[in-house]
Amino acid sequence: MDQARSTISKIFNGEPHSYTRFNLTQNMEGDNSQVEMKLSSEIDEETGGNGVGGHLNHNSNRTPYVAQKFGRTPKNLCFMAATIFLIFIIGYLIGYLVHRNKDLAPTCATSALRYEDVSVAHETGAAPLMDWDDVKKLLAEKLTTSSMDAVLGQLTSSNHRAGSPGDEDLGNKVITKFKEYGMKTWTDEHFVKVQDPPASGYNRIVFKNGSEERPTGFLSYSANGTARGAVLYAHYGQEDDLRQLKDMNIDMNNRVMLVRAGRISFAEKVANAAKVNASAVLIYPDPADYSIGENSFYSSGVNHLGKYSDEYTEGKVHMGSGDPYTPGFPSFNHTQFPPVQSSGLPNILAQTITTGMGMNILRQLGGRTQPNGWGSINRLGDESDVITVEVNNVLTEKRINNVFGVIKGFVDADRYVVIGAQRDAWGPGFGASTVGTSVLVELARSISDMVENGGFKPRRSIVFASWSAGEYGSVGATEWLEVRSACITYNGFKVAASPLLHSLVQNALKEVNYDKDKSLLSQFGKNNWESAILEPLRMDSAAYPFLAFSGIPSVAFRFHSGSSDYPHFSTNLDTRENLNSVTASQVPQLAVRAGQFAGHIALRLVHDHLLQMDLKKYNQLIRSHVVQINGKVKAVQRMQPQLLPKALTVKWLIMASGSYSRASSALAADIQNSDLEDIEMCRVINDRIMTVERNFLSPYVSPRDSPFRHILLGSGPHTLKALTNHLDSLTTANPDADAELFRNQFAQATWTIQTCANSLAGDIWSLDNEI
């Protein structure tokens, strides 16, 4: 600029031989072409003083030119006019370039800068957009039944327990395939503490004066020791089941609960039993739940069940996920943390038994009649039905490896979707892990080929993750989250998902064909798809910690048969032959459908400018909770006024709910009015969308005490569901209810919702500060 001012000054001072040269060059490192302005002094330097400038200064004895006052001569007037015109041109070009630089900010398409009829191709850095219909067609072409069947055969393993040589070998196969597909790969190593069955010795049960039974299955993270007490049949061990027993005035103290597998996780069954002071829990697979011989209840023996009678089941009873001995932080080698353990570890014994063992106990129970609908054998058990349970599990440290491959995005490479599958299993694990791992590998191959040879350029990255130690409670996935804290995970057709993803799930159901003439939506959800297909995300799902622990929108899905689940998950009978028998040998075909469904969701999330997430879905969920809480608060104030005075109002919770509703509507309006060609704007809006789930994690509870901190979909006293239950206890003046604790939790939940609304609003001047 000093040179420019000097040159202009020389012009005004009449130095006749100075001039300015404009040179159009292309900036090879940036996004914008530029005009380079070289002044006469620069040219003098480049030519070593030769040329016009050098000629003027060649004679050192020349008398300096003295500026003279301009007269109004024709010559001077022409010179002034030329000078003014040249200044105008310089100003116009500078203004044009500044304006042009703004216009040429990175956009979502290739543009060209024209200068004197010469077109210069200009890459903005954005991925050329492929039509969504073409993306769907490409995926359908790449993901085939024959290739899926081949991978299923290659990845089938009879023994791949977490941390075993079989698990490591399978992980090596997965990473080798990722490398073959041209993906960047890496592994994530953790040293975790898990509980295995006794290496020497055994767990055992003795019912009445019968013979000793030694179940092969076990429940990881059970308390060890011996418990002796009367058996009490408790249906599925759900809170409602135990409430019914309590309403019947049945004493549950020190009882050994006999419960059926299913409906809720093993961990929840044991936690519920511990709350009523049971001494132990025995869990068995009931034939009525799995369509494997309902009539055998009436037989005198168990031989009618055939192979199912001796099928053993394994699981975990840690009320959490990840390594329970490093809650909230990752398990690296030789990590030095204070001795601590998760509050979700049970303090009572828990053991799985076979169907045959469970039915043998049920037939001999006396006592009172079961509530309606609890089963064909109608006795609950009495004080004489004594059983001894002994558990001797062993705590051990294992090295596990998560395996990753990534397809990098072309615009927002640092924003990514995770597609994950559990790799390990306690038995053959064909349904539990082999199918999922095969779908993962085939999706990686198909999408890599779409990028390499099909012209598809994802805007965001896709990370393919093969988790280890999933059987112990999503340990591998949770440990990785504890290191990093979008995301898609899958188990195998019911769908459980964050409300933000419901619209995306519905679109995928419409677009993926179940057969030639029917989509998944028309096959499974003709009328009300939400009630027919959606289900709550269970705690034992690999997707659950992503959502409830880390606040990442997640989805899990599974194929199922009618009203019953596949009976062999986490058992010694989870083989390809048995899975084929319940699917009419359609495993490869169903795996392809699963891959297409997961692929459609993942590809949509990396294809579109803006994330397809429905922010208003949470409005309905929040409002339903607010309505319930409002009604129950009034009931307590009416029935137990000494506990909740009239001064306590739900007004602030209602206002927080309204703030979220307005903020989500405002962001929806911003999305409608946004310029999809503006990369930075798209990125800002997507970041605002992604904060929603994370801001529903309560900041007022510790991950050690309540790892699943999501106030709407998590688990613990901080959730809105827990507030509702607490109000029920206050209504009945339950001695366990604490009005002061409720008021604190109520305030914290209210402010968590308000904070989420504030974050969603974006700019500080957009915040609704009424509360």
UniProtKB/TrEMBL annotation:
Stearoylated. The chain crosses the membrane at residues 77-98. InterPro entries: PA_dom_sf, PA_domain, Peptidase_M28, Peptidase_M28B, TFR-like_dimer_dom, TFR-like_dimer_dom_sf. It is a single-pass type II membrane protein. SUPFAM superfamilies: PA domain, Transferrin receptor-like dimerisation domain, Zn-dependent exopeptidases. Residues 661-760 form the Transferrin receptor-like dimerisation domain. Residues 402-587 form the Peptidase M28 domain. One of its GO terms (biological process) is transferrin transport. Pfam families: PA, Peptidase_M28, TFR_dimer. This is Transferrin receptor protein 1. It comes from Astatotilapia calliptera (Eastern happy). The keyword Membrane applies. It is found in: Cell membrane; Melanosome. Residues 229-294 form the PA domain. Keywords: Cell membrane, Endocytosis, Glycoprotein, Lipoprotein, Membrane, Palmitate, Receptor, Transmembrane, Transmembrane helix. One of its GO terms (molecular function) is transferrin receptor activity. Belongs to the peptidase M28 family. M28B subfamily. Homodimer; disulfide-linked. Cellular uptake of iron occurs via receptor-mediated endocytosis of ligand-occupied transferrin receptor into specialized endosomes. Endosomal acidification leads to iron release. The apotransferrin-receptor complex is then recycled to the cell surface with a return to neutral pH and the concomitant loss of affinity of apotransferrin for its receptor. Transferrin receptor is necessary for development of erythrocytes and the nervous system. Acts as a lipid sensor that regulates mitochondrial fusion by regulating activation of the JNK pathway. It comes from the Eukaryota. GO terms for cellular component: external side of plasma membrane; melanosome.
